Amino acid sequence: MKKSFIYLYFLSSSFLAQEKEQDLQEVKVSKHFIQFLDKNPFYVLNQNKIELGSFNDLGELLSRLPGMNIKDYGGLGGLKTISSRGINGTHIGIYIDDFAQNSVALGEMDLSKIPSNNLKEVKFIHAGQDNRLHQVSSYLNAQNIFLYTLDDEIDEKKWNFRLQNKIGSFSQREAFSSLQYKKNRWALSGFYQNRYCKGNFPFVLTNYSQKIQLKREQNEIKEQYGGLRLSYQNKKGGVFRYHSSIYDIFRELPSAVILYSNEKGQFITNQQFNQQLSYFYNSKKRRAHFLYVQHQIDKIQYTDSTFLNLEHVLRNDYLSKQFTSGIHSKVKTFAGFISFGTEYEISTLTIDTTNYQRTVWKSIMIISIPLKKWNVELLMGVLKINNRSLNLQQNGYIWTPGIQYRSKKSFPIVGEILINLKRSSRLPSFAEMYFQSVANPNLLPEIANQLSCNLNQHFQIFSKKIRLNHAFFVSSILNKIVAIPSKNLFTWTIKNYNKVLSYGSEHSLQIELFERVNHLVSLSASYTFQKNINNEKTSLLYAHQLPYMPIHSVQSGLSYQLKDFQIQARVYYLSSRYALPENILTNEVKSFYTYDLLLSYKLKIKSTQIIHFQFSILNILNYSYEFIRSYPMPGRHFTFQLSYEI
To answer: For 510-530, how does the pLDDT look when each residue is reduced to its tens digit (9 = 90+)?
Structure first.
């Protein structure tokens, strides 16, 4: 079972100040870079929502967006991965200030490694991009998460300083600081975060009619994360930017709680070094260019001090390296915007003394064609993989075409309409192909064909501002890569499902219930329905829901704001799921509710300094629940955060 947990870890686990702007129809021009107006509906969390939510990491934050399905292996410090609309995290790009963060070895990012302290905005887009130029790969993903940090846009002030301290249950201690300095055309910023949590929390284990109170152990986490960014604006308006970051973590790995077992002795150390160099250039002739280079080194060491209950140590070392370079441009023509670019990537993985390598060419072409009252956008992307070990057809080329229609006006009842048809692909990760005996080097690339229709409505009823968003989607996934038990619960293997069908809908509501001078009461709620089934008719598991894919999820929040004081009550519901591909009662993971209460107050001093107090009570009813079977989540717990800004 110890091997199974480390397998799950590797299989499941990434300017200068704005000046005066002028609007030029579809493009917004500043001296630093071009921001093209958003053409895709997306879910957005701004800095106020991020701060009020009292989230520990990106995984907790994304779980509050409609359609997000998070696999959480035990709260703070536990592994967290994401899926949406039946698409897992390997199809979802994560970009921090325009640069990709996905893990080379795993194929997807462990979201618990990305703190929320330094984030000012989060955007989740089901098709395409937002209004920035990112890496070329963002056009080839099924979905994208764009994260913008406080370092991305430096305040007009010469100095900007921020300090945070956070304490909480289970010995949680967290400190964060950031500093920004601007002079003439130069800007320098940096941040540092230190986090510790013992994480040993009580939980209730139910075995038939018997309930037993135990303590979740082996949860200690020690983490350091820091970064430095230097920016320079030349006289032509171009912006050079260099950013480096270092991540260091020690994490104990709690084993699955099976038959009252709570094994110890497993831990992971992870050091990651990331360097990014980019150049933004824009012209008032409505064109922009983004040139970039990224180099990442990721070192992971897994240790089991009591391997198979014997008196010796098992140790595995994993060293991955990735080099990425490319150019992404956007130009205004008589037919609309044309976006094009190319990217080169080389990845290597060393497991102990064995080396693996993969090189990838990525290129894209996007053409936007406006036709009177409506707009069509055509997309064509291609990946060229130079790796004979992959089972690829068409001489190693994978094509990813797409087409999008967006109404230019809001229609009665239905509102604004966006219809998107997109094909995306993802390669098997190094871990899926080469990790010990569970891997499968003969895996096929995964292909996803997606169709979605989005409706956005804005209206007022009795002076109440209301916003409704509806999304209806269907996805067909070929050669979906899944992990399933091959012999028993402790022996797993990787294989391709020939066909997977995903369909459903997402609905969200935002309404201002009461608004008076200095008083605001607002309600937000969302509901997601999704079916993710095995669609291979010859399979014995035909029409069975895929593991850990809930059919229903609901979340809502009621908030009251009085000047600088805010209070929010929120509810989260997740329906039952199945832990294994066979949908039988013994494989069912029970549904659950959680209730949270959050308080926030900002005290302004001399108009230039802010002290921010935050207090939260999470899982108020002390409910025992699990996202993943045998990995219990914390019961009732508290956090208190104090921030200072100048």
So the answer is: 888 888 888 889 998 999 999
**Integer CA distances (angstroms), 467 to 278, 470, 518, 523, in order:** 38, 10, 22, 11
The torsion angles phi and psi of 285, rounded to 5 degrees, stand at -85, 15
Q: Residue 150: what residue type?
A: L
The two three-digit tokens of residue 630, written as one number: 């045998």
How does strand 143-149 pair with strand 92-96?
A: parallel
Q: Are strands 99-100 and 588-589 parallel, antiparallel or unpaired?
A: unpaired
Q: Nearest-CA neighbor of 54 among 41, 40, 64?
A: 64
Contact status, residue 492 vs residue 486, Cβ threshold 8 Å: yes
Helices and strands counted in the chain (H then E) = 4, 39
Contact by Cβ (8 Å): 221, 76: yes
Q: Locate tokens 């870890």: which residue?
A: 9
pLDDT in tens, 483-519: 776 655 556 778 887 788 999 999 988 888 888 888 8
Question: What's the CA dihedral at 484, 81, 91, 64 to 10 degrees?
Answer: 130
Helix residue ranges per DSSP H, 19-77: 47-53, 58-62
Kindly state the helix (H) or strand (E) to which residue 560 belongs, with its residue range.
Answer: strand 552-562
**Whole-angstrom distance, CA of residue 364 vs CA of residue 340:** 6
pTM: 0.86
C-alpha span between 232 and 254 (Å, rounded): 46
Neighbours of 336 (CB within 10 A): 15
Report the sign of the C-alpha dihedral through residues 82, 3, 215, 305, in that order.
negative
- Single-letter residue type at 583: N
Q: In the structure encoding, which two tokens stand for residue 73, read together?
A: 């292996």
Q: Are 348 and 434 contacting, i.e. CB atoms less than 8 angstroms apart?
A: no
Quick check: 85 and 473 in contact, CB under 8 A? yes
The Cα–Cα gap between 525 and 527 comes to 7
- Which tokens belong to 463? 């002076």
Q: Are 81 and 107 in contact (CB under 8 A)?
A: no
